[in-house]
Design a protein that fits this description.
Beta-lactamase, three-stranded mixed β-sheet
């Protein structure tokens, strides 16, 4: 059958209309704003809908900090790891069900490790359930004027309905600094330490780019590599948002280039309110270009960096994070290739704050009012797929939880263990890794890591598995 040229064009147009929103796109949204004034210094497709990935956790932090300000919860309040939190896909801390973490420690783990299980624990601790917390995320988002954001979960794990935009993320980042200045250091942590394990940040601007002072990264195959970054020079703080980079090096390079240009020009080209917004739409899926065919995506993205970059050597001196001495001037691409800096890690721990004697914030049985402690027996019976909570967690749970676990019938314990094994098997099939590049092909791994080296690797202890490093 032969089709006319006009017929083929019409069919192609129809397909673009039907599938265009979900088709991969090479252009990557970005925006640079002045925090104090809200002036937009540069923008490119800043209102295009995009999958947020783990930058979602900035919204999670905003809702949690707002709850602290309202007195509904304190930074010392322990949040409990529920079975639902423990089933979250990596990146995760891997604590056992029943473990308690103070809200402050949980927020540090959320920002540095980008832990998806911790995000669920925070959501349940603040609002009683993930669904109720998502409602709060959406209400807060609307109150800030984030007209293109829809939130369904607190961690950014894939959900095609959960979208945002570069503009909305700039509004969110600005609100965090202006409304919660006392918590600004939460977004500027270079590394955290849990026991003997030191976990570094994924924000590669920290310690590399002069003035970089925080915010959050995110990655899924569908979203690409996202970054909300802030930097301060001469008392002036800017926020840059870059979405959909093909790898973390290019994400860092473009963000540094945009910040350089913002600090140099300083001229407003628009306001956040003036950027056109049509509301949330379907976001493009970058899985094929980011996780399978990186070459063309990286090459095209590099061209964008070349266009955004300032001349080599025109950047301000980069500070040596160890001694504070100025190094040679570097441009954005050079900064992105610097070795990982060393930071003084912020200590975190599992368990209650010393001297804390208040209630535990945790998930509630469906329909329980806010502030009411849950009926744990009813909750456990409503979660047949829950992971095994009979084993001793790292931190001792509340006494009522201990007595309830001891009273469980043997049959229920066996069912929970079977569900845990099934959940672990399902997690192994998840191909989404947040804030980390896609793994190397098997052949490449075997070539770069000889079997002899693998044989020398010591076995991990059971105690260490409670804080599994995992991919993030």
């Amino acid at each position: 059958m032969i089709f006319s040229k006009s017929t083929l064009i019409a069919a192609a147009s129809a397909l673009l209309i039907l599938f265009g929103a979900a088709a991969p796109t090479r252009a990557t949204p970005s925006i640079v704003v002045d925090v104090a004034s809200g002036a937009v210094l540069s923008h490119d497709q800043a209102t295009a809908s995009w999958y947020p990935a783990s930058v979602t956790k900035l919204m999670t932090a905003y809702v949690a900090l707002e709850a602290v300000r309202q007195g509904r919860i304190s930074l010392d309040t322990p949040v409990m790891m529920s079975p639902r939190a423990c089933r979250a896909a990596p990146s995760k801390m891997g604590f056992r069900a029943g473990s308690e973490v103070t809200l402050h420690n949980a927020l540090v783990m959320l920002m540095v490790k980008s832990a998806n299980d911790i995000a669920v624990a925070i959501a349940e601790g603040v609002s009683g359930s993930v669904e109720a917390f998502a409602d709060e995320m959406n209400r807060a988002s609307a109150s800030l004027g984030m007209t293109q954001s829809v939130w369904l979960n607190p961690n950014g794990l894939p959900d095609e309905r959960q979208v945002t935009s570069a503009r909305d993320l700039a509004i969110l980042g600005r609100a965090l600094y202006l409304q919660f200045p006392e918590h600004a250091n939460l977004f500027n942590i270079g590394a955290m330490q849990l026991g003997k394990q030191i976990i570094p940040t994924h924000n590669h601007l920290l310690g590399r780019y002069a003035g970089a002072d925080g915010m959050k990264t995110g990655f899924t195959c569908s979203a690409g590599f996202n970054l909300v970054a802030s930097a301060t020079r001469g008392g002036r703080r800017l926020i840059a948002v870059v979405l959909g980079a093909p790898n973390p090096i290019l994400r860092t390079a473009k963000t540094a280039a945009l910040l350089d240009r913002g600090f140099q020009s300083g001229a407003a080209v628009a306001s956040l309110a003036s950027l056109p917004s049509s509301g949330p739409t379907a976001a493009p899926d970058l899985r094929e270009s980011v996780c399978h065919h990186r070459g063309p995506a990286a090459a095209e993205f590099m061209a964008e960096i070349e266009d955004a970059s300032v001349p080599v050597g025109s950047g301000v001196p980069l500070l040596d994070t160890l001694g504070g001495a100025p190094q040679q001037q570097m441009n954005a691409k050079e900064i992105a290739h610097l070795p990982r800096p060393r930071f003084e890690p912020v200590p975190v721990y599992v368990g209650r704050a010393p001297g804390y004697a208040g209630p535990v914030a945790r998930s509630r049985a469906p329909g329980a009012p806010v502030g009411e402690q849950p009926d744990l027996a009813a909750y456990a019976s409503s979660q047949p797929e829950a992971s095994d909570a009979s084993a001793s967690p790292i931190s001792k749970p509340a006494p009522d939880a201990v007595s309830l676990r001891r009273a469980k019938h043997t049959k229920a314990v066996k069912a929970a263990r079977a569900a845990k094994a099934a959940a672990k098997a399902d997690a192994a099939k998840v191909d989404v890794v947040v804030d980390e590049p896609a793994p190397k092909p098997k052949a490449a791994r075997s070539a770069t890591k000889p079997k002899a080296a693998a044989a020398q690797k010591p076995a991990a202890s059971k105690a260490h598995s409670a804080a599994e490093p995992g991919k993030s």
